[in-house]
Amino acid sequence: MKNSNSFSSILFCLFSSFLFPFISSTTPSWPPMNSRHAVSTAATPPPPLQLHIIDQHVVMDNGIIKVNLSNPKGMVNGIEYGGIENLLSTDNDEDDRGYWDIVWNLEGSSGTKGILDRLETTDFKVIVENEEQIELSFSRTYNNSSTGGKLIPLNIDKRFVMLRNSSGFYTYAIYEHLKEWPAFNLDNTRIAFKPRKDKFHYMAVADKRQRLMPLPDDRKPPRGQALAYPEAVLLVDPIEPQFKGEVDDKYQYGCESKDSRVHGWISTDPPIGLWQISPTEEFRSGGPLKQFLTSHVGPTTLTVFHSTHYAGEDMVIKFGDNEPWKKVFGPIFIHLNSLPEGEDPLRLWQNAKEQMMAEVQSWPYGFIASEDFPKSDQRGTVSGRFLIRERYVSDESVPASGAYVGLALPGGLGSWQNESKGYQFWTRADQNGSFSLNNVRSGNYSLYGWVPNFIGNYQYSAFIVVTPGSDINVGELVFEPPRDGPTLWEIGIPDRTAAEFYIPDPNPKYINKLYVNHSDRFRQYGLWERYAELYPNEDLVYTVGLSDYKKDWFFAQVTRKIGDNKYAGTTWKIKFQLDSPDTHGTYRLRLALATAHAAELQVRLNDAQALPPLFTTGLIGKDNTVARHGIHGLYRLYTVDIPGGELVVGNNTILLTQASSNSPFVGIMYDYIRLEGPLTSKM
Ligand SMILES: *[C@@H]1O[C@H](CO)[C@@H](O)[C@H](O)[C@H]1NC(C)=O
Ligand SMILES: *[C@@H]1O[C@H](CO)[C@@H](O)[C@H](O)[C@H]1NC(C)=O
Ligand SMILES: *[C@@H]1O[C@H](CO)[C@@H](O)[C@H](O)[C@H]1NC(C)=O
Ligand SMILES: *[C@@H]1O[C@H](CO)[C@@H](O)[C@H](O)[C@H]1NC(C)=O
Ligand SMILES: *[C@@H]1O[C@H](CO)[C@@H](O)[C@H](O)[C@H]1NC(C)=O
Ligand SMILES: *[C@@H]1O[C@H](CO)[C@@H](O)[C@H](O)[C@H]1NC(C)=O
Ligand SMILES: *[C@@H]1O[C@H](CO)[C@@H](O)[C@H](O)[C@H]1NC(C)=O
Ligand SMILES: *[C@@H]1O[C@H](CO)[C@@H](O)[C@H](O)[C@H]1NC(C)=O
Ligand SMILES: *[C@@H]1O[C@H](CO)[C@@H](O)[C@H](O)[C@H]1NC(C)=O
């Protein structure tokens, strides 16, 4: 049995849409800045930067915005912009408005919950100060003889950068673990901002994912009522009656890394936007499909660099003893924008997307002071052509059009999806299979790939060593996806998600109006309960040739409630006919999973009672995708050998038992299932 991790996204984004996910050519041009807000016009040059260090605070001021940081803790406690003295919540104390944080744990600990550290720093230094640029450093040094294991064994350096005539500021952080320091686990790290709740009511995370949001007060009892998965709250008595009866949950606004370059909040009165812009995914964990939180009720806006969401414990970064490590997270850009009163505030989203494009185009930034952040001329390029050859389909290699190709630290097949210590660089191949990875940091990488519509993972046999200025052409790479015979039947599309399967309407009691009639209908709350309603007496039966996976294959194989806090596993059947099985051949069942949570998938053939089963995955996954309204987590691919002698003439049944039953949230989502015959077989 093989078990490899692999991926594929079939939602054929145009190739350019991976890099520039939001931009349409019809984007309206931006109106001139409101004179009330603008300091700069073509006639008067923008004022030089000013830095004020007053007692326990440091203020960077470029005439457009003023950023107020606590000294030496390095917390952002004020952003003055657009005539408003502070866009951040002054209801929160100073350390709770804009901050970097880490969740970590001691070596050997299990789970994904740990010790929260807001990274209060002890040293403040001005790195750059001139008329064009300010760069500040807030740092702390780990002292292994004084901390007694209470602090995370990392040196922390939080940087804040402001440029002249820029409507925002940059931030990045450098984390460093020295060889002789203790081992530890890193669960999560991010930067969070808490805009003020009396102003910021409209949230945008994508063109089709934006809405007016409830208030944080609406989530607290008795206005809000926590649901079965407590982050989800039913708004029973919200302050604004329009939200009454809706569900709110931050996980409904999560995004894949590749689609999460800009998100944030809009104030309509006055029209002001506050945005997080990540020009690249290179410093984020887990590659382009890793899902992260974005913005949510609070109001809160996050850039999450590393988390275990939709992946679980396999995603925790484990540092051993004697393991030196250093990583730069960011820079990201905090962008502010505004419009004259009376203009449509939603145009601020258009401008935020344009600003995101501008940041992408100037990546890697040339103005960052730290030597740990390599500039463009210190980086390299890796290019080549990616082809695919699928035996039993064609003898020819064809361009792997739309393939995802990436560089990540060396590991096993598909290891990049839970790799977090290094940097990752991804792109998509063009129609001819050609790809070019630009601005790659120096380092020793493996080259990985996967192709929408095909199962499995590709990994190039050689390591790729990038040095400053290197231009490496790897030539033609040929990926042979797993296949040992012709397709007898298949269910779904190999795209690493369950999106093509049947996704029910939500219970009318648990609606988020944003996702009604929406392409992401899977983001509604409570869909797991709909399985038992649709299949009250008997589990799902799929008949090859008659059933349609879009209608007849429920998107998640979840448990069935059988009493108070009691759940049962389920057994799904796939019925198919074979006229003359090849009794000497080996048939292969390919099971590609889009996610798993505390699940055990057992496979049987024709005999529901067979013990042991023909195959079991054992207990797999802590992705928590069902509870968090996702459509995929980590990708897992299994191959089950079926001896031809066990197949019968006529009707056969494959029984798929999800045996684990301790909660409503355990289960799996399939990506794709295929039965391959031996070379000579016929249906
Ligand atoms: C910076 O913020 C602190 C705390 O909110 C405040 O006391 C101080 O006046 C601010 N400084 C400036 C120059 O705005
Ligand atoms: C602390 O670090 C020093 C070197 O910096 C090392 O020699 C020593 O073993 C460390 N002590 C502990 C308790 O880890
Ligand atoms: C580390 O802590 C020890 C014990 O408190 C102290 O003696 C030493 O000076 C500290 N080292 C540094 C570099 O701060
Ligand atoms: C200042 O920024 C504005 C808006 O981005 C731009 O139109 C203007 O040309 C800039 N001015 C200077 C002197 O760079
Ligand atoms: C990724 O998860 C697998 C288990 O699924 C684990 O064996 C591996 O060590 C993890 N990789 C990293 C880099 O943490
Ligand atoms: C496709 O790639 C091949 C090999 O590099 C090249 O010869 C050919 O011209 C390319 N075709 C197009 C349309 O770019
Ligand atoms: C690159 O990494 C691999 C795997 O760790 C290692 O075997 C190889 O020697 C490394 N190559 C270089 C040049 O460091
Ligand atoms: C959903 O869309 C259908 C057809 O596009 C429309 O008839 C229906 O009213 C919509 N439902 C809601 C709740 O918007
Ligand atoms: C085989 O299955 C088909 C479809 O479920 C059914 O119509 C047929 O009667 C079955 N044949 C036998 C021999 O059981």
TrEMBL record:
Gene3D superfamilies: 2.70.98.10, Carboxypeptidase-like, regulatory domain (2.60.40.1120), Galactose-binding domain-like (2.60.120.260)
Localization of this protein: Secreted
Record field: catalytic activity: Endotype eliminative cleavage of L-alpha-rhamnopyranosyl-(1->4)-alpha-D-galactopyranosyluronic acid bonds of rhamnogalacturonan I domains in ramified hairy regions of pectin leaving L-rhamnopyranose at the reducing end and 4-deoxy-4,5-unsaturated D-galactopyranosyluronic acid at the non-reducing end
Entry keyword set: Lyase, Secreted, Signal
GO molecular function, one term: rhamnogalacturonan endolyase activity
Lineage: superkingdom: Eukaryota
Start and end residues of each Rhamnogalacturonan lyase domain: 401-473, 487-675
Gene Ontology cellular component list: extracellular region
Entry protein name: rhamnogalacturonan endolyase
Organism: Cucumis melo (Muskmelon)
Lineage, opening ranks: Eukaryota, Viridiplantae, Streptophyta, Embryophyta, Tracheophyta
